[in-house]
Amino acid sequence: MKILNAFLKLFFLMIAILPSNSYAINTECVVLLYHHFSDDAPKSTSTSPELFNKHLEFLKKNDYQVLPLKKVIESLKTKQNLPEKCVSLTADDGFLSFYNEAFPLLSYYQFPMSVFLSTEPVDKKYASMMSWDQLREMSHLVDVFNHSRRHLHLINKNIKTLEEEIYFAQDRILKELGVNDKIFAYPYGEFDNNTYSFLRSSGYTAFGQQSGVASQTSDFLNIPRFSMSGPYAEMDSFSLKVRTLHMPIKKYSPKNLIISDDFKPVLEIDFLRHLSSYEKVNFSCFVSDQGRAKLEWMGSESVRVKSKDPISIGRTRYNCTMPSKEKGRYYWFSKLWLRQ
């Protein structure tokens, strides 16, 4: 009995001294996507340095754990728990404004961040891009991963072109920075079945540009990220997004982005669990530039989502949300379509 009492005392002592943000219950993480850090670049892909500072200040003051992207991926794949308030920061392309504006702020807050780099603009020393020397200088806080060689739309590309775009960029990053992690972000968030299969057979983990929360049940060849540019970067949007939850989805179809015939595409979602009446009533999906989508429920664990009108040429998203039991927190899922 004495041994049991001693064990129980030790057990409760360990619980008491664990930090509140310990790796105890969470299996998901919000990944944020930035491009330019500027007041002058196109608003659709820009975040002002002042606003980015407010983002980082919010994360610091509210005890968010900002983790390196590689750590998040490893934890999700191996089903390790993550901090309750988990966020990871990413930026695409490698613009010079990252070095001039974002990096000083990251250094001040001591937050890690990842850059998905298109290598040819760096090799050609474009004035708007960072240099290899600058990337090396930031390596204690900034990881660099593959964003292709020339930032092409990776749609309808043959194997030779995919090899030139992905393998070449991987080799350049390895040669310049000594980094060989097979982590990729699709330019423009676009891919077709050929590109998807190429990355899978080559052993990559890949990120898209659709909204949502990265979780253990994510498609690791199309992990979601929340855009933090333009109006989506404003503080009310930012604070909402960092508190979102992964939609409890078992599977969805189709995974392919390309629309070739029916321009009112149908998204089929199967949930991991039975949805309550409240959740069903409050589950809603919105179509880019159209408003609410049509919903057709098939029981409490499956729904079909369809736009009311034909979607436009280019990229279109179905954004689906559902309130959680926690006030102000929402489940979130987004599906990207591409009409050529």
Describe the protein's architecture and organization.
31% of the residues lie in helices and 27% in strands. With 340 residues, it is an alpha/beta fold. The chain folds into two domains: 21-243, Alpha-Beta Barrel (TIM Barrel), CATH 3.20.20.370; 250-339, Immunoglobulin-like (Sandwich). The strands form five sheets. Strands 1, 4, 5, 6, 7, 10 and 11 form a seven-stranded mixed sheet that branches. The radius of gyration is 21 Å and the shape is globular.
Keywords summarizing the entry:
340 residues, TIM Barrel, 2 domains, six-stranded mixed beta sheet, 21 strands
Name the structural class.
Answer: alpha/beta
Measured between the Cα atoms of the first and last residue, the distance is 73 Å
CATH topology of the largest domain: TIM Barrel
Number of strands: 21
- Overall mean pLDDT score? 92
The total count of helices amounts to 10
**Rg calc:** 21 Å
Strand percentage lies at 25-35%
Let me know the CATH homologous superfamily of the largest domain.
Glycoside hydrolase/deacetylase
CATH architecture of the largest domain: Alpha-Beta Barrel
Q: Given the C-alpha coordinates, what overall shape results?
A: globular
Low-confidence stretches: 1-24
The top-level CATH class of the largest domain is Alpha Beta
- What proportion of the residues is helical, as a percent range? 25-40%
Number of domains: 2
What profile does the largest beta sheet have?
7 strands, mixed
